[in-house]
Amino acid sequence: MKQPNKQIKVIEVIADSSLSGAPRHLLTLVNHLKKDFLIEVICPMGWLPDELKKIKIKCTIIEMGSLSDLKSVANLKQILNKSNADIVHFHGLRAGWLGLLAAKKLKAKKIYSEHLYTFDYHLKNSLREKIQINGLKKIIKSIDKIIVPSMAVEEFLVGRLNTPIEKIKLINNGLDDYKVENKVEKNKFGFIGSLNEQKGLTFLIAAVRILVRNYPNLSLEIVGNGPLRGQLEKESQDLSDNIKFIGAVELISPYLATYNFLVVPSLSESFGQVVLEAAIASRPVISSNAGALSEIVEDKKTGLLVPKGDSQALSDAIKSLLEKPDLAQEMGRGARKLYEKSFTADKMASEFKKLYLEIIKYNV
Fold first, then answer.
1. Which of 19, 130, 146, 172 is deepest in the core (most CB within 10 A)?
2. Quick one: average pLDDT of 263-280?
3. Over the chain, what is the mean pLDDT?
4. What pTM did the predictor assign?
5. Which residues on adjacent β-strands are paired with residue 298?
6. What is the DSSP secondary structure assignment for residue 188, as one 8-state letter?
């Protein structure tokens, strides 16, 4: 590929700086692209700016509220107009909507990454969901390229929003490799993620309630935080000897090290980055078949797939791996091989590099 005569400037915009999937994905991406592009990030206060500082990525703090946050639009407009950016890449609906309002007259190429919506994803408030979908439609019309992490997201954009397929680019998420010690504890497994409606934790708690009849020493750790934590703790009070809420952590590897497997009971998932975390640690995943999860969990090879929202099926799958630890280890090795083949950070970054160069006409 022909290389540019000057360093291309890329501004990444995200409205979430928490420990969740999209900010972690962005951090991995910019860390790999900084050697090839001049990268800057715009994001709110939180975990992400501190991590960007560690890897010497310039970060501008802007708090981005609702889709009607005109103050954020004004702040973004001022920064983007002075940026001389070649590419502006928006991550997520809020950043996409506010950012594109601010970048209407910007000559830079505009890219949008959708990190959330699949046919399985719904909000409790149908009016709010309708507003978001309408906002997403307008983003699609004004963007040069849309990045999706999975076929599930692509199918939603094409099937529900009539997005032209040529406007979409599928690039799977990827993660850096790291070492995880093997400290597996008998009958122990875990959940890692945000404690929200989409993660299906009520069904996991119900599955544990079924299992403890025969596995009184069963141990589930729930790692993460979110709006449903109080409700879930109350819901599982009778299982306090078996279920432990850890809270949010920056490093999940010490927890993965002790698990026989990970459980991902999501009702919707646009990718499922935690599945890769488990694969790096050679741990299989028991997962629902929601959204993109069946794209990254190979049933009976790297884990087990069960119908979403089915506590009995979840219980049966957990029981099968508790009873067959050798099978769990074999699946874990398969998951590790799949990660190495398809989901490394280098592979992801290479795809983004190629896209960035192509979109500003540095073609082969």
1. 146
2. 97
3. 95
4. 0.93
5. none
6. E
In contact, 12 and 33? CB cutoff 8 Å: no
Out of 43-52, 133-142, 148-157, 355-364, least confident range: 355-364
**E strands of the chain, at which residues?**
9-14, 38-43, 58-61, 87-91, 109-113, 145-148, 168-170, 188-192, 219-223, 243-247, 262-264, 285-288, 303-306
User: In this predicted structure, what is the pLDDT of residue 4?
Assistant: 56
Q: Which two tokens stand for residue 24?
A: 């972690």
- Decide the pairing of beta strands 9-14 and 87-91: parallel
Mean pLDDT of 92-108: 93
CA–CA separation, 353 and 349 (whole Å): 6
Supply 228's token pair.
Answer: 């449903």
pLDDT classification of 306: cutoffs 50, 70, 90? very high
Q: What is the pLDDT of residue 3?
A: 54
Domain 9-175+344-359 part of CATH 3.10.310.30: no
Place of tokens 């997520």: 92
For the chain, which residues make up each domain, given as ranges? 9-175+344-359, 188-342
Q: Is the pLDDT of residue 363 over 50?
A: no
Considering only the C-alpha atoms of the chain, give the largest distance between any 2 of them, rounded to a whole number of Å: 67
User: Using one digit for the tens of pLDDT, what is the confidence trace for 122-163?
Assistant: 999 999 999 999 999 999 999 999 999 999 999 999 999 999
CATH for 188-342 is 3.40.50.2000
Sheet holding 168-170, edge to edge: 58-61, 38-43, 9-14, 87-91, 109-113, 145-148, 168-170
pLDDT of residue 37: 97
- Rounded Cα distance between 20 and 31, Å, is 17
Report the number of secondary-structure helices (H) and strands (E) in the chain: 14, 13
The answer for residues whose C-beta is within 8 angstroms of residue 340's C-beta and 6 or more apart is: none
